[in-house]
Amino acid sequence: MGAMLHQAVMLRFKATNNQAKYEALIAGLNFALSMAVKRIQVFSDSLLVVNQVNQTFETKDKVLKKYLQLAKSLISLFEDFSLTHIPREEN
User: Fold this and answer.
1) Beta bridge partners of residue 84, listed in sequence order
2) Cα–Cα distance for residue pair 19/67, rounded to 1 Å
3) Contact, 21 vs 47, CB < 8 A?
4) pLDDT tens, residue by residue, 7-41
5) Residue 4's pLDDT is what?
6) Which residues, at least 6 apart from 81, have a Cβ–Cβ distance to it below 8 Å?
7) Where does the sequence pass through the membrane (predicted)?
8) Cα–Cα distances in Å, from 86 out to 12, 36, 67, 83?
9) Are 71 and 51 in contact (CB under 8 A)?
10) Do β-strands 80-85 and 39-44 pair in parallel, antiparallel, or remain unpaired?
11) Alpha carbon distance 58, 65 (integer Å)
């Protein structure tokens, strides 16, 4: 059994929607790691981010590649990780 954690993130710089979704994922992963979480299940309404992290989509954009690399380095610190797409209406 686990706990559900919610976190809000405010960006103080201009970012595309996809960059903002990666920022939210990375902030959430850092938050979970700071609480010594070992297993995490993440839900996102960003089909692009979910599919890039899950290696279904290729990442061509240089900036998003950097976000993906950072996200993957954080993900590797968890014993168990899953990222699931959910429709925006259900998020």
Assistant:
1) 43
2) 8
3) no
4) 788 888 899 999 999 999 999 999 999 999 999 99
5) 79
6) 39, 40, 41, 42, 75
7) none
8) 26, 26, 21, 10
9) no
10) parallel
11) 9
Q: Longest C-alpha distance within the chain, in Å? A: 39
- Tokens standing for residue 44: 């996102």
pTM (2 decimals)? Answer: 0.89
Q: How many residues does the chain have?
A: 91
CA 13, chain centre distance (Å): 18
Reported as a pLDDT band with limits 50, 70 and 90, residue 1 is low
**What's at 18, amino acid-wise?**
N
How far apart are alpha carbons 78 and 9 in whole angstroms?
A: 21
Closest CA to 81 of 38, 25, 48: 38
User: Measured between alpha carbons, how far is 69 from 30 in angstroms, rounded to an integer?
Assistant: 14
Instruction: Give the phi and the psi of residue 80 in degrees, each rounded to 5.
Output: -145, 135
Write down the domain spans for the chain.
Answer: 40-91
Tens of pLDDT, residues 61-78: 999 999 999 999 999 999
